[in-house]
């Protein structure tokens, strides 16, 4: 149950970091123009982002469905990929750094909990 709750925490932080980013002064006009902080928005980029965002969402359910051995492997890969997405795809705005720090701390806790289990 703890792993699932931590994945919910990570997922919500990802969502709210993005929501608050839209309210940062000057960002909404960039979104409307299709280029945010020098990154061109495209359908392909949105699909890639959707795949990365789906990983922690899927882990909420998979923590309850996978056998312990499979869970260890899948959780490790999911946590590392999600951390790379959060760190590599983020911004240096203070609110984002705060959210990303919370997400990475939760991901490290997920990894620690996963590897402490007997499986």
Layout of SSEs?
Blueprint: H1 2-22, H2 27-33, E1 35-36, E2 39-40, H3 43-65, H4 68-88, H5 94-116
Antiparallel strand pairs: 1-2
Helix pairs in contact: 1-3, 1-5, 3-4, 4-5
Q: What does the model show?
A:
By secondary structure, the protein is mainly alpha-helical. It has one domain. Helices cover 80% and strands 3% of the residues. The protein is built from five helices and two strands, in the order ααββααα. Helix 1 packs antiparallel against helix 3, helix 1 runs antiparallel to helix 5 and helix 3 runs antiparallel to helix 4. The longest helix has 23 residues. Keywords: Membrane, Transmembrane, Transmembrane helix. Pfam families: DUF6326.
Low-confidence stretches: none
Structural class: mainly alpha
Question: Quick one: biggest sheet?
Answer: 2 strands, antiparallel
In whole angstroms, how far apart are the ends? Answer: 16 Å
Strand content: under 5%
Number of domains: 1
Strand order of the largest sheet: 1-2
Following the backbone from N to C, one meets helices and strands in this order, namely HHEEHHH
Gyration radius from CA atoms, angstroms: 16 Å
Please tally the helical runs, counting DSSP H or I stretches of 4 or more residues: 5
In round numbers, the mean pLDDT is 93
**How would you describe the shape?**
elongated
Approximate helicity band: over 70%
SS elements, strand count = 2
């Amino acid at each position: 149950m703890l792993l699932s709750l931590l994945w919910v925490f990570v997922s919500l932080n990802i969502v709210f970091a993005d929501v608050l980013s839209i309210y940062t002064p000057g960002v909404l006009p960039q979104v409307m123009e299709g280029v945010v902080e020098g990154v061109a928005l495209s359908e392909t980029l949105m699909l890639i982002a959707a795949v990365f965002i789906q990983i922690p969402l899927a882990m909420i359910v998979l923590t309850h469905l996978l056998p312990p051995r499979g869970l260890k492997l899948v959780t490790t890969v999911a946590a590392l990929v999600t951390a790379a997405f959060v760190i590599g795809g983020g911004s240096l705005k203070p609110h984002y750094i705060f959210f990303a720090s919370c997400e990475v701390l939760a991901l490290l806790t997920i990894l620690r909990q996963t590897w402490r289990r007997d499986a």
